[in-house]
Predict the structure.
Amino acid sequence: MATAKLTKRYIDSLMATASKYTVYDTELKGFGLTVFPSGTMTYIFEYRPDGGGRRVDKKRMALARVGEVTPDQARGLARDKASDVRRGLDPLADRQSKRQQIKVHELIDQWDAASPISKRTGRPMGGLTKPYTLARLRNHVVPLLGNKRVIDITVEDVNDFIRRVTKGETARDEKSDKKRGRIRVRGGQGAARKVASDFSMLMVYAIEDGIIHANPVTHARKPRAGKRYDFLSVPEFTAIGLALEDLLSEGANPTGISILRLIMLTGARPGEIEGLKWDEVDLQGSCLRLTGSKTGYSIRPLSRAAIDLLKTLTRTKSPYVFPASRGEGYFRGAKKIWNKARTKANLPNRVRYHARHALATIALSEGIDAVSVAAMMGHKGPRTTLAVYAHVLDENAARAAENIGGKIAAAMTIPAGLDPFNAEESRPSADI
């Protein structure tokens, strides 16, 4: 059994191994630190309930992760638990009892406050992802399931929830607390699919926190993600481009115009371009090195046109490529400019994401391999690209089949008078 005084310097020296291990504190009995293969370190407290004794099995409870509290604060938490044990209490049983009473709306607030790291990126949700996720949870989940205990949620509950969101039962349009603001909540299959994914993530958090043992969303009937059939065509790119030129001449903010142009040139997610920082721009390497994308660190190749656009921008003291007109953040008005441009171009149903879809669709149609397209799009791997844009590959396959089939059919055609089993002897001699 490894023992040491748990100080910050000692903890910083610990390394993860293939299997988890625990180091116990020499200063306080029962207090320790567990190091997991992933590198995560958690302060723990072990005790024997019901008066102790060798015949009573030990219980172990997690106190906090390294980084959330200092070693001295964690030791203080362990002392409090030790005091509870001496008074005949069972801290772990009390905690589990309280956890079993937590309701869904309370779990959402708890997840919001905790901001746990994402397994995909290794960081807490950033940018607009977290606000949008919370908005979906609070506008769809809370009205239908918010007052149910988390431990009581069943697969049937989740199926019913998805059905009701799909039918639009949670949709609403009403005035918000903000001046001239409104709350617009849309239902439908798309909303149900997204919030089902959010709810599943919340249930995984509940499992990690020891509230439940299984995710009820896993076996629910979740709507499948649709294929990307809608994208900007080349004439539509032209129409939007001309509309942006007109808006610029009419006095539209040039920063917003530049954001939209770069989105169309790169096929990047709108949020990735809006929040782009200069230290993520590598003009010499002709790429963007995004540190906060949806899939974590991501390298995106840049075309000459995109590089030329970036070179026209004036660099200020702001770390952002597209700084806000006021304050220290980045410019957030590009979406309004897009809405004006699509109206002017008579394309009312085209959103900025259609430019992203266009990049992948055109690239795949041109025969560019899925690995390269995945890199351009910032997908985690080509499997995502193949799944989302499978219809484009189906069309390519159909053209290839027609081409190859025609050649084989031509090869199978036997001219009149030719013996296919003795083609050389039966072939008419050529005149010399």
About this structure: The longest helix spans residues 390-412.
